[in-house]
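user: can you give me the structure for this one chain? tokens are fine.
assistant: on it. calling the predictor now.
[tool input]
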Amino acid sequence: MSRPEDMTNEELRVAVAEAYGFSPVLRGVSRDLNIWKHPKTGHPFVFGQLPNCPEDLNACADFERSLNSVEYMEYRYQLRKLAQEKHETVVDVERAVISAPGPNRCVAFIKTMTK
């Protein structure tokens, strides 16, 4: 697996789904026929129906709500590390964490759940 920071949005989408608990039932037939099982309901999802976290902050909010308190602290730490790469002051880093775009939230979630 490549580093989350280097993944495309589609790769992030799949990696987040796997980290969240979606499991492949049928994979690799074609992009549209990758079928996944939802972690809570067990219902099948075709690839196109997986949450699109890199492009949808509401989908990010779903995985953020699933984190327990320890995971959430690690998630915030990972978001902060990403923000510190581009910002210098504490205030700018915190603003970047609060307003983090979907791809950054996905990277932080993957790093949190795969530790």
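assistant: here you go. The beta strands are 23-26, 35-37, 44-46. Residues 4-113 form one domain.
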